[in-house]
Amino acid sequence: MKIKPIRTDGDLATALALMEQLWGAHIGTPESDALEALAALIEKYEDEHYPIPPSDPVEAIRFRMEQHGLGVI
User: Fold this and answer.
1) Rounded to a whole number, what is the distance in angstroms from the first to the last CA of the chain?
2) How confident is the model at residue 1 (pLDDT cuts 50, 70, 90)?
């Protein structure tokens, strides 16, 4: 198994497919080490290329209230 840097969306797709194959590996095995390395590489690539902006605090509270069936008085 060869792990390499993720530079393109194609590399990302390959890494995600490999991650899926390794999912559930027992801790301490070479497979779990590879899974951990892939997770770090994927996270770095996604943070740089697909950033998620922070949510608006008021909207987050409204969303949570709606989930619990609460309304504004």
Assistant:
1) 58
2) confident
List the structure tokens of 64: 């949570």
Give the span between the Cα atoms of 9 and 11, in whole angstroms: 5
CA–CA separation, 26 and 13 (whole Å): 23
Tell me what pLDDT residue 71 has: 76
Whole-angstrom CA distances from 50 to 6, 45, 63, 68 are 13, 8, 23, 30
Instruction: Classify residue 6 by its DSSP letter.
Output: -
Are 15 and 6 in contact by the 8 Å Cβ rule? The answer is yes
Domain ranges of the chain: 9-67
